[in-house]
Amino acid sequence: MSETNILVVEDERAIQNVIKTYLENAGYHVLCASDGLEGLDLFREYEPRLVILDLNLPTIDGMEVAATMRAESDAYILMLTARSEEDDRISGLKIGADDYITKPFSPREMVARVEAILRRSRNGDEQGLHLKFRNVTLHLDAHEVFAGGEKIVMTPTEFKLLRTLMKNHGAVLSREQLVTRVWGSNYYGNDRVVDVYVGQVRRKLEESTGEILIETVRGVGYKFIDEPIV
Ligand code: CA
User: Fold this and answer.
1) Roughly how many angstroms between the first and final C-alpha of the chain, as a whole number?
2) Domain-by-domain residue ranges, the chain?
3) pTM of the model
4) What CATH class is the domain 5-118?
5) Mean model confidence pLDDT for the chain
6) Phi, psi (5° rounding) for residue 34?
7) How far, in Å, from the CA of 11 to the mean position of ligand 1?
């Protein structure tokens, strides 16, 4: 199994370092962000399996960060809260955080909690992480796409493009944004490549679902339609 990515979003450098050290010693690959904006950037770029999220953060409040992450993916969220923040813990769990840990905490307990969450995910009846909108389901670990009940064959680039559009469902992404997220910021080719790939993905989905699920927004870019089916 490949190394599991864990993202730590914590503005207190000392705590960030302790968490990183303990998780690395436990065999995880750890990314660190010091505020909510950086946290969301790293979250989108590296798609960590689990996020350790301090709720009391500069720039964007941790609760908002948690809600945004939850809307975009099924990554696990372990909240860090102060002892006095019981209301936050409850709201955080309602938003969809998977567990919380109260500061000050023992680093060994933190590692045990992380392992418990990841173990739960392997043993549970969930089929790993997935994204599902309309008739389309992406299994992120297996890199499989199901639409209208059938499995669809996609190339790795098509899969990445569809995943990016679905994660941002309902929002328009420009060609430039799609190039950066799918082909990477070192890609210097023509951004019309996006049009070609969107065309292919759209056709494959349409063949299985009978619907146009990726909309062209003229002069802006593309979006995955997420209005409810009527
Ligand atoms: Ca803090």
Assistant:
1) 42
2) 5-118, 126-224
3) 0.58
4) alpha beta
5) 86
6) -105, -5
7) 5
